[in-house]
Amino acid sequence: MEPGATRGLGTVSDESPVFGASDQDTEDAISDPATSLVDTYEDWQRRLADAFLYPHDGPTVFFVDDSGLARLTRAEESARNLAAAVRSRLRLTAGRSMFDRLLMAYRRWQHGPKTEPPPVLPVIAVSVLAATRMRSDNVARSTNYYVRLAQTILPGGGDAELEALRRNLEERGAFLTVVEMWVGLHRWIEDQHGAVGTSTIPEVPYPSRIGYPLSQALVRQSDRASLTRLFHALHLSPDDLPVPETLLCTLDIWAEDARNRFSETFMGALADPQMRSLLGSVVVAHARAWDGKVLTSEGKQRIAVKLGIDLGTWQTRWLFPVPEEGPRMLILSGQGEEQEVSLNAVEGREYYTDQGAPAVTFEGVHSGLQLRGGEFAAVFPPSAVVFFCPDPQTGAWSSTSGLVPFEEHVVAVSSQHATDFRRMLEEAAAEGWRRLPQRRSFLLEGYDLFEKVRFFDGQALRDVLSRLPGLRAIGAVAEVVPRAKLVHGLPVDGSISTSRYLRGGAPDLLVPFGSEHRIVTVTLDGRSDRIAANGFPLPIRSFIDGTGRHVVQVEGQELSFTTVNEGSDPAPPAGTGSFGWTSSGQMSVSNQGVTIIGALVPESDDDVATVLGRRGRDESWLLRDDGRAEMVAEPPQPRFLSSIDISFFSPVFEIRADASARWLAQRRGPLWRLTEIGPANPKQYDVEIDLQNAWRRACSDANAAQLWKMRMRMAGDGA
Fold first, then answer.
1. What are the φ and ψ backbone dihedral angles of 271, each rounded to 5 degrees?
2. Whole-angstrom Cα distance, residue 157 to residue 24?
3. Where do the segments described as Disordered lie (predicted)?
4. Whether the Cβ atoms of residue 42 and residue 34 lie closer than 8 Å to each other
5. Greatest pairwise CA separation for the chain in angstroms
6. How far apart are CA 474 and CA 239, in angstroms?
7. Integer CA distances (angstroms), 214 to 45, 53, 129, 144, 369, in order
8. Is the backbone peptide bond immediately before 570 cis, with ω within 30 degrees of 0?
9. What is the pLDDT of residues 617-658, one digit of tens each?
10. How many other C-beta atoms are found inside a 10 Å radius of the C-beta of residue 534?
11. DSSP assigned state of 527
12. In a 3-state reduction of DSSP, which class is residue 376?
């Protein structure tokens, strides 16, 4: 946790100036209203213990920078105040022995009960503060830690004083005492068995001495929040932690996406060959300490909001997923907004029902949405492009974190990028996509909408994105996969295993990919091959036959699955076939007059077809083969939906069509959607036409019939 983010922080009592500081230090403190009260070493020890070593789960990070100290004390000169408190216990001219007074106190603590943290926290804080100030200027290069430490301990010191202090710290070995203090703090945190969190101090850092303070300065609170999202995407568990090298390669790929960027300090360490190893050990320490929660930069548990879109009702809405083991009820509010959003969980539903949720606007999508509560925050990230997939929970479409190969998408692209995105579709997408007009009313203002978007060719997609880097920058890429995983397939026995698949329905392998062309070696049951990592899955079922256990190895990971001829229990799954609908449209158990269970409809009439019509149309008609048109009324939603506390909308309704019906015609605005009745794969056409007159003529006149067919061909298949 960063200072200021916890309870009881920043309490400054009425203290006297630092004892043992120079006269000039004391005079400066008294003359400056912001630091007229200078705290003692003991004050800082207590304050830092309260800020960092309080009871909590998850990682304990001793990150201290200038802004954090200011929040901790609510004073502008907090860093000078801290430095003065530390100097009061030092003999700056004693060379290697400058920390002896503090070392003696530390030794006494070691021989005591050690119920309190070691009395070294102000020194630890100063050493981390110096690490956060590492940058290049006319005094020192960014890598010269000891210059920054000397400046932090002795702010305002002359060149000669600072150089002498640097030599004592670096060349004469005074800093070794600070290293011993770091080791003692790490061991004390570990000895608390999680009561004050889990230590992120490396056992053996590199660089060997300054690696201790650097390890705490590399990862800011915003970085820690980003890491929790990565760990969640990796499905990490304490028993399955990657080695540092693997985790660093994963970070390289993860951070390429602009939505997953870390702080400048973090990214600099990731790219620095000297700092990269230290960063790897620090990130592994964070992974080991992770408690399974995804956090925001404010330390609140994150609810990843989705954007829902319904093309049938022409509506959008925010969707709030229920977190694992999350609360049944939440109250959230936007920044500066008085209106509250009430979220309530419903058994069996993945989303909260909401009351008072804000409307979907251009600003909310393009700039992002944040709603905050006490311990939770609902977040939708800024998005210039949004990919939507079918959502079985809503019966419509909901946003995903990127395009999913082979799956059908609706895509919303900000209008400024629409031209480039259309070029991407023309060059890399499968045929059949089209732009959705928003003439009558905007479904998503400021965005162009495309439907029936599918991608099958990974190389074509990579080629076009290399020529249009702006699309990659906004996230118009495949969903980031930070770790190899098995996807798709035909799983069985899901209640007892997650790795059993039907023979012939083996899963696909998806491997991590980045912006650079990458070839990886995949080993399947002892046979190796090299494949391109491009975000598109490898169909494993093409390479195996028969049943049994199969092992996939890729980039240090081992994944296994088993193919079987059938599930372990051939009987119908428990609970199926027990509920259905009565003839009056009410849900009931199977022994109480149920006439429809699932798709089984007793006494069905082979001469009558069932056609699905879209709700929300201006009018609907059945066109019969004798030229007549019969209006179809849209029925109300099923009555049972009003008896349960679920916000649900069925986008279609059933229409009974006898053998004389040839077309279902539905109008929205000036456009008619015509759907063939009868064929297994019916064609659909979107046309502007005088419907009833044109159909009446088509059924009575051969020339008019040809004209009808010509109009359909010109319209093209709208399916």
1. -90, -10
2. 11
3. 1-29
4. no
5. 111
6. 35
7. 21, 19, 10, 12, 34
8. no
9. 889 999 999 999 999 999 887 766 665 555 556 678 889 888
10. 18
11. E
12. strand
